[in-house]
């Protein structure tokens, strides 16, 4: 039977009635652990290459398959599971950067097969700059939001956003800007190291709980984060708080 908005009496009766439903919650591990692990690996490999620590001009065609799957697909899957964990930050950031790394992997595949010409990392590249406009804006948004959680995660996204903003400007306006790209790469390297630290804390907390050696792996959670409830109320849908230690 249809429920019409003009039938006020029936609408009020339905809204006041106790729903006869049962909701089963399916606890999942924190998706951010997988997302940050994929991000850290792919970012470290690429940024250290851009910084000139190793490799030659042909190196990306060898390491980008791993980067596309671990940093791209892995992050993308983690971002999708962020929906189930009711974690908007994880969903937006990891789907965003997972899409980027998969797109870069596809780009280098097309270069390797000869479908597209090769393009140097230190050259004017406005098309890639348009990608970094989107990456920079949403990463800055994530950095601001993460400041309510813990300082390590906030530092991960802040250094990532700074490096991405520098790269965006250089790709848009620069040419032959090797030093500038190295500066961006070092910010990405810092971000990758901090992401590795945050993933390590996830692993340690799962293995040892809140006691023991976990005190040697601080992430500096904010007072607001510590006050968050274990259960988050929703519109007719209770849900387990996004993945944190001690929340089953």
Question: Could you please describe the fold and organization of this structure?
Answer:
This protein is mostly helical. 64% of the residues lie in helices and 2% in strands. It has eight helices and two strands; from the N terminus they run ααααααααββ. The protein has helices at residues 8-16, 31-50, 60-84, 88-112, 126-146, 151-173, 178-208, 223-226; strands at 231-232, 239-240. Strands 1-2 form a two-stranded antiparallel sheet. A hairpin with a 6-residue loop joins β1 and β2. α5 (126-146) runs antiparallel to α6. The longest helix has 31 residues, at 178-208. It is globular and about 70 Å long. Mean pLDDT is 84; it is low at 234-241 and 243-248.
